Each structure stands twice: as C-alpha cells, then as structure tokens.
C-alpha cells in the first residue's frame, strides 16, 4: 500500500529531475502529476509484456501513479500492473495504485458468447441480480463491487488499493431514474466505506466519462454536490468519522475542456465547473484521455501549443491537462517504454500558470 513516507521518499529520489510542481499532494500522498493508464491494447500475451515493460519503466523514471480497471483487457491490465509492481525497482509503499469496478469483466479473453458468459458467471451464480444490470454489462450493486474489489486485489497482488473507483455510474442512467442511481451510489459507497475501515482501500472515488461535464438536462448528468452528499451519508451510516471519497476521474484535454469551461454544479452561491467544485470539496482530480486517446500526439491548435512547454505535441498536450486548476495527475497510456519515457518527461517542463491557462479560453 502507498504511504506518506513512501511517496515522499519517491519524490525525494526523483524530484530533482523534474520541474518544481511535478509532484503534488493527494491527501497524505505525494504523487507525480503524470500517471500511467492501462486501457488500450489487445488482450494478448505480447501486449501484457509490453505493458509490464512500460510500467516498470514508468515506476523507475519518476511516475508513481498507475490507473487500471478490472475490465481493462479482460483483467489482463490489472495483472500486468501486478507484475510490474513486483519487477520494478520500487517499493510498494511508493506507488499509488488505482483500479475500478462496474463493468462485468471477462477473464483473459472475450468469450465466443458474451451473453451466455455473463448469465452463467454472474447472474446464475447469484453474484448479480439481472435487475441491477445496465446493457447486460454494467452493475454497481454492493455485493458485486465487494466481489470485484477482492478479485482486483488478487489480480494486482496487493493487500490494499490506494483508490477504488465506481466506474462510469452514469451508465445506469440509461435504465433507471437519476434518483435511483444516486441511491445505488450511496449503497456502493457504504460498501467502500466498510472496506476502507477494514484496511482494503485508502480512498475511493468516481470515474466518469460524461457524468460531471455535461449540462444538468443531459441524460447522463450526475450532480457532484449530490454525489458528495451521498458519500457523507454512507460514511455516517457505517460509523466512519469522515468519508473516504477523495478522488474524481474525468476526461480532460484541449478538445474536451468541459470540466473547466462548463459551470453545471451547484456551488454555495453559484454554479461551478467540475474542476472548481472538486477543488472546493477537497477532491483530487485525475484526468483521463489527456492525449485524446492518442489524437493529440499528432498536434494541438497552434495558438495553444505556443503557450505550452514540451519538446513534442504529446508532452504539450499532457502539460495542458496538468495546467488545469485542481488537477492532481494527468493520466496517459502505456503503449511502450519509449512512449512512457517521452510522456513522463513532460514533467520536466512547468505547466501553465493560472492566468496563462485562463487566457487560452479568452
């Protein structure tokens, strides 16, 4: 498990190689502001090895944040993270490991008949009630998340994860009313509060795609104030002094800046953007799609690129995400050790200051 002492030790070992604001606080931890994601790639042994090599490179060159999910590459990504944690010349207490639960995972490969697999492994076994499913592939019911966390711990080969995300809860809005989804989230948070109290996770959060950056009228909108309120209620229900809800993951890049530009969440006096609300609520933000799933590595708008530090378009795109107020870590993919070195080196450049970042949108 990551610790304050371990992550500070990591920062002291690597910090001189990076710009001043590269390492940032997340609760008690000191985290790199470039993190490694594990979403893309085929479910093959060769890709597993590429991921393992890339992750070892990341851990050994100044990146101590890794993000995965049990459904990524049919559980292979979690297992590759576990292998890299074992092989890298770092201590477990130096690395912040985050994973997610929500989408029903296959095991190693996509079955010939996915529907039959889900029915046999999840519904007929009693692990999932069919009424809790959305699109036959998504569930955030308490018993399911409890089981998925156990499986993730086994895949990763760790005793505790540092953050466990409820994965894309807005998926449930396709099949049930918004209030019912808030109720689902509160029940899910109760499980995670109990697992936090038991020492199985340090923090939990919500990882989303649409939920927090679309207008309130949008079918996939979820209110951050309501989510935080439900987490506080869940903590009280299980007897915790305060909530362990700490992390928020959402897409953010030059082309998808809604989390900064769109004021959709009710604040104390006026509507706020997701980033601003998260900052005031004490939530740490981890950005997904920082490279637009690779598209921004080919280039940024000229006027934006001119303001950003970096030797390559990918580095400048990462530094745009790192510049947004309230962002702790910008997550980027780990397609190869070479790309990891390039992406982590974005941290040798200072991000934009607040005024310069605001000016991009004027």
Quick overview:
The protein is 38% helix and 16% strand. The protein is built from 13 helices and 12 strands.
Can you tag this structure with a few keywords?
single chain, 362 residues, alpha/beta, 8-stranded parallel β-barrel, two-stranded antiparallel ribbon, 13 helices, 12 strands, 38% helix, 16% strand, NAD(P)_OxRdtase_dom_sf, AKR2_Oxidoreductase
Give the full name of the CATH homologous superfamily.
Answer: NADP-dependent oxidoreductase domain
CATH top level is: Alpha Beta
CATH topology: TIM Barrel
Give the averaged pLDDT, no decimals.
96
How do the helices and strands follow one another from N- to C-terminus? HEEEHEHEHHEHEHEHEEHEHHEHH
Bulk shape: globular
What is the architecture at the second tier of CATH? Alpha-Beta Barrel
Neighbour order of strands in the largest sheet:
3-4-5-6-7-8-11-12
- Strand coverage percent: 15-25%
The biggest beta sheet is recorded as: 8 strands, parallel, barrel
- Residues in helices, as a percent range: 25-40%
Low-confidence stretches: none
Query: Based on DSSP secondary structure assignment, what is the total number of beta strands?
Result: 12
Number of domains: 1
Tally of helical runs: 13
- Terminal residue distance: 43 Å
Domain NADP-dependent oxidoreductase: 35-214
Protein name: Aldo/keto reductase
InterPro entries: AKR2_Oxidoreductase (IPR053135), NAD(P)_OxRdtase_dom_sf (IPR036812), NADP_OxRdtase_dom (IPR023210)
């Amino acid at each position: 498990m990551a610790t304050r002492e371990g992550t500070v030790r990591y920062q002291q070992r690597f910090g001189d190689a990076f710009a001043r604001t590269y390492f940032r606080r997340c609760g008690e931890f000191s985290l790199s502001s470039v993190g490694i994601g594990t979403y893309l790639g085929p479910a093959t042994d060769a890709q597993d090895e590429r991921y393992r090599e890339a992750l070892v490179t990341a851990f050994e060159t100044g990146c101590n944040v890794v993000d995965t999910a049990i459904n990524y590459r049919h559980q292979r990504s979690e297992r590759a993270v576990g292998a890299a944690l074992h092989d890298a010349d770092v201590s477990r207490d130096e690395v912040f490991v985050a994973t997610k639960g929500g989408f029903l995972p296959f095991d190693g490969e996509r079955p010939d008949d996915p529907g039959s697999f889900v029915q046999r492994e999840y519904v007929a076994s009693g692990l999932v009630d069919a009424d809790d499913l959305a699109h036959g592939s998504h569930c955030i019911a308490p018993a399911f998340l409890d089981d998925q966390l156990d499986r993730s711990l086994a895949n990763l080969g760790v005793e505790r994860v540092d953050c466990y995300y409820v994965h894309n809860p807005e998926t449930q809005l396709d099949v049930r009313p918004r209030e019912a989804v808030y109720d689902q989230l509160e029940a899910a948070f109760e499980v995670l509060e109990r697992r936090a109290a038991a020492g199985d996770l340090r923090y939990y959060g919500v990882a989303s795609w649409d939920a927090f950056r679309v207008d309130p009228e949008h079918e996939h909108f979820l209110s951050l104030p309501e989510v935080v309120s439900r987490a506080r209620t869940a903590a009280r229900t299980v007897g915790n002094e305060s909530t362990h809800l700490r992390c928020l993951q959402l897409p953010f890049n030059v082309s998808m800046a809604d989390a900064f530009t769109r004021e959709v969440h009710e604040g104390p006096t006026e509507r706020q953007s997701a980033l601003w609300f998260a900052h005031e609520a004490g939530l740490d933000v981890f950005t997904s799609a920082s490279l637009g799933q690779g598209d921004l590595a080919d280039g940024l708008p000229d006027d934006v690129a001119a303001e950003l530090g970096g030797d390559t378009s990918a580095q400048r795109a990462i530094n745009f995400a790192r510049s947004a107020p309230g962002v702790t870590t910008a997550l980027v993919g780990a397609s190869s050790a070479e790309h990891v070195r390039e992406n982590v080196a974005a941290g040798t450049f200072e991000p934009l200051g607040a005024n310069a970042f605001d000016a991009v949108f004027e």
